From TrEMBL:
<comment type="function">
    <text>Catalyzes the reversible epimerization of D-ribulose 5-phosphate to D-xylulose 5-phosphate.</text>
</comment>
<protein>
    <recommendedName>
        <fullName>Ribulose-phosphate 3-epimerase</fullName>
        <ecNumber>5.1.3.1</ecNumber>
    </recommendedName>
</protein>
<dbReference type="InterPro" id="IPR000056">
    <property type="entry name" value="Ribul_P_3_epim-like"/>
</dbReference>
<feature type="binding site">
    <location>
        <position position="31"/>
    </location>
    <ligand>
        <name>a divalent metal cation</name>
    </ligand>
</feature>
<dbReference type="InterPro" id="IPR011060">
    <property type="entry name" value="RibuloseP-bd_barrel"/>
</dbReference>
<dbReference type="GO" id="GO:0004750">
    <property type="term" value="F:D-ribulose-phosphate 3-epimerase activity"/>
</dbReference>
<feature type="binding site">
    <location>
        <position position="33"/>
    </location>
    <ligand>
        <name>a divalent metal cation</name>
    </ligand>
</feature>
<feature type="active site" description="Proton acceptor">
    <location>
        <position position="33"/>
    </location>
</feature>
<feature type="binding site">
    <location>
        <begin position="195"/>
        <end position="196"/>
    </location>
    <ligand>
        <name>substrate</name>
    </ligand>
</feature>
<comment type="similarity">
    <text>Belongs to the ribulose-phosphate 3-epimerase family.</text>
</comment>
<feature type="binding site">
    <location>
        <begin position="140"/>
        <end position="143"/>
    </location>
    <ligand>
        <name>substrate</name>
    </ligand>
</feature>
<feature type="binding site">
    <location>
        <position position="173"/>
    </location>
    <ligand>
        <name>a divalent metal cation</name>
    </ligand>
</feature>
<comment type="pathway">
    <text>Carbohydrate degradation.</text>
</comment>
<keyword id="KW-0119">Carbohydrate metabolism</keyword>
<dbReference type="InterPro" id="IPR026019">
    <property type="entry name" value="Ribul_P_3_epim"/>
</dbReference>
<feature type="binding site">
    <location>
        <position position="64"/>
    </location>
    <ligand>
        <name>a divalent metal cation</name>
    </ligand>
</feature>
<keyword id="KW-0479">Metal-binding</keyword>
Length: 228
């Protein structure tokens, strides 16, 4: 099964975003962290920057909304050019309705869970989604250490996906690097957000290729992938 690598511009140079986007051409998506200083204790960027990025790169944008009231704001990110929009279930008032609205506007709908949020209560929502994001750090800041305690939840999520026969991407975000990506792939993730591991490298495009190779090799030997 193919893996996908999504470099996170949270670790990029914000004064050179267009150049930084081009530096990772060959990546599957460009991960854009939107933070409002309310849902998480950090403030990053919003709709105007997403609009500018969408014009500056051919790499599709994967917008991760760490904001309050995503039911109100998420559709605007589709209109701004995002090809995938992720909202946090902890913040959404009506996650099914929101996922359907995102899809109706032409983007992939994704739902994110914080490390302490269990996946099981949302099993019935999974068919409404194109991707589920399991946070492997507490959302809000880049450069945090990977939380191994989330690996069992990734495995349980992969089991639920298989149980329902879904074509659902399983994304991980937080502390993903050459030291942790294999564990994530073995547990069941197939979409990997990497920030400092890519943009902290001397050659970001080479870092993307190296991460992809490690994740692909781990996936090929993972029990969950061998079952398909």
């Amino acid at each position: 099964m193919a893996v996908q690598i999504n470099p996170s511009i949270l670790s990029a140079d914000f004064a050179r975003l267009a150049d930084e986007a081009r530096a990772v051409e060959g990546a599957d998506w460009l991960h854009v962290d939107v933070m409002d200083n309310h849902f998480v204790p950090n403030l990053t960027l919003g709709v105007p920057v997403v609009e500018s990025l969408a014009r500056a790169t051919d790499t599709p944008l994967d917008c991760h909304l760490m904001i309050e009231a995503p039911d109100r704001w998420a559709p605007q990110y589709v209109e701004a050019g995002a090809s995938s929009v992720t909202f946090h279930v902890e913040a959404a008032a009506a996650p099914v309705r929101l996922a359907r609205e995102i899809r109706a506007k032409g983007a992939r709908a994704s739902m994110a869970l914080k490390p302490a949020t269990p996946v099981e209560p949302y099993e019935d929502l999974l068919p409404e989604l194109d991707m589920l994001l399991i946070m492997t750090v507490e959302p809000g800041f880049g450069g945090q250490a990977f939380l191994d305690i989330v690996l069992p939840k990734i495995r349980r999520t992969r089991e639920l996906i298989a149980k329902h026969g879904l074509e659902l991407w399983l994304q991980v975000d937080g502390g993903v690097s050459d030291a942790t990506i294999e564990r994530c792939a073995e547990a069941g993730a197939d979409v990997f957000v990497a920030g400092s591991a890519v943009y902290g490298a001397a050659d970001p495009a080479a870092a993307v290729r190296a991460l992809r190779a490690k994740a692909q090799a781990a996936t090929e030997h993972a029990a969950w992938a061998c079952d398909h």
